[in-house]
């Protein structure tokens, strides 16, 4: 598998972790292991990394990539199970956790699972290939009001006409490809500027299928159970729905005296990084420390 993903905020994430000798860190969205590699390359003695990756295809590749790294242990699991994974490693607590949310570029461009509106593929969009819910199932079986709810959750202003068109289209023919979905969206929404009209529809389906927003909340709650005092939690989000959850969670827990917010303002990739890696433009990083 070719690594076409460029790790976002690579050094900023690792600096934010405040690495220490003998520390154990979790890379909860392992992908191609860019952040883990940066941790290992710091050369701090006796550091361990536990990696978590939900996508079996990406996990198999990651195991292979890191097969000679004795201090990296990778699990094919959902990050909501972060606390159980730590226990199963025979550990109590860890010193830092990274969440670099969303999908990697391989999944979007090469996995053939219909994540992109730019390629005609089957409507799947699952990260966890063992789960039952696919994009095809949603567009062909969700009631119109449920489709509206899903689209509205990413602030798609055309949620009503798109949902209506989906239900009309499927009466004539089952919707099975990304091209069919793009055709439906484009029949009610025109391109404005650079952004493709189907961008939000595809994002909304991906979030619904993979329960991304619910999972973030659960994973953050579970992370607090396993972080040592002074342990750091570093989260990179890629859209406002994700960032809102993380920001509110951190504010709430800070008021409860559980953690302190390290960066009052979100950390964004430097201009140079944004230029070299355009997907990094929507990244926002937040860092907290357990007290
Ligand atoms: C933005 S990529 C991370 C890239 C990684 N930091 C790197 O440098 O290669 C997000 C990764 O997290 C994985 N992922 C998404 N949701 C997950 C979840 N709930 N549990 C575990 N892994 C998840 C995706 O499959 C994807 O590989």
Automatic annotation (TrEMBL):
Gene Ontology CC: cytoplasm
Catalytic activity as recorded in UniProt: cytidine(1402) in 16S rRNA + S-adenosyl-L-methionine = N(4)-methylcytidine(1402) in 16S rRNA + S-adenosyl-L-homocysteine + H(+)
Coarse class of the protein's main subcellular location: cytoplasm
Enzyme class: transferase
MF term (GO), any: rRNA (cytosine-N4-)-methyltransferase activity
InterPro entries for this protein: RsmH, SAM-dep_MeTrfase_MraW_recog, SAM-dependent_MTases_sf
Entry binding sites for S-adenosyl-L-methionine: 33-35, 53, 79, 100, 107
UniProt superkingdom: Bacteria
Keywords from the named record: Coiled coil, Cytoplasm, Methyltransferase, rRNA processing, S-adenosyl-L-methionine, Transferase
UniProt cross-references to Pfam families, sorted A to Z: Methyltransf_5
Parts forming coiled coils: 202-230
GO BP field: rRNA base methylation
EC number(s) stated in the UniProt entry for this protein: 2.1.1.199
Record keyword Endoplasmic reticulum present: no
Subcellular location: Cytoplasm
Role: Specifically methylates the N4 position of cytidine in position 1402 (C1402) of 16S rRNA.
Family designation: Belongs to the methyltransferase superfamily. RsmH family.
Protein name per Swiss-Prot or TrEMBL: Ribosomal RNA small subunit methyltransferase H
């Amino acid at each position: 598998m070719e690594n076409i993903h460029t790790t976002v905020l690579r050094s900023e994430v690792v600096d934010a972790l405040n690495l220490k000798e003998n520390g154990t860190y979790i890379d909860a969205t392992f992908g191609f292991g860019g952040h883990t590699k940066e941790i290992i390359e710091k050369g701090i003695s006796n550091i361990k990394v536990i990696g978590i990756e939900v996508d079996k295809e990406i996990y198999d590749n990651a195991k292979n990539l890191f097969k000679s790294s004795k201090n990296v242990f990778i699990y094919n699991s959902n990050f909501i199970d972060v606390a159980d994974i730590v226990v199963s490693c025979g550990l109590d607590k860890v010193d830092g956790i990274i969440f670099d949310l969303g999908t990697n570029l391989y999944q979007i461009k090469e996995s053939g699972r219909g994540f992109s509106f730019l390629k005609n593929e089957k409507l799947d969009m699952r990260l966890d290939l063992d789960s039952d819910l696919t994009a095809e199932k949603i567009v062909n079986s969700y009631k119109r009001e449920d489709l509206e709810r899903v689209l509205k959750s990413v602030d798609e202003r055309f949620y009503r006409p798109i949902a209506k068109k989906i239900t009309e289209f499927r009466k004539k023919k089952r919707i099975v490809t990304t091209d069919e979905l793009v055709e439906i969206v484009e029949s009610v929404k025109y391109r404005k500027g650079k952004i493709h009209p189907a961008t939000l529809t595809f994002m909304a389906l991906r979030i619904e299928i993979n329960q991304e927003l619910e999972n973030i909340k659960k994973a953050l709650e579970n992370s607090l159970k396993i972080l040592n005092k002074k342990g750091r939690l570093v989260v990179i989000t890629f859209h406002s729905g994700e960032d809102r959850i993380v920001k509110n969670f951190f504010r709430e827990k800070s008021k409860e005296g559980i953690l302190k917010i390290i960066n009052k303002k979100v950390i964004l990739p430097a201009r140079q990084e944004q230029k070299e890696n355009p997907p990094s433009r929507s990244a926002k990083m937040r860092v907290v420390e357990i007290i």
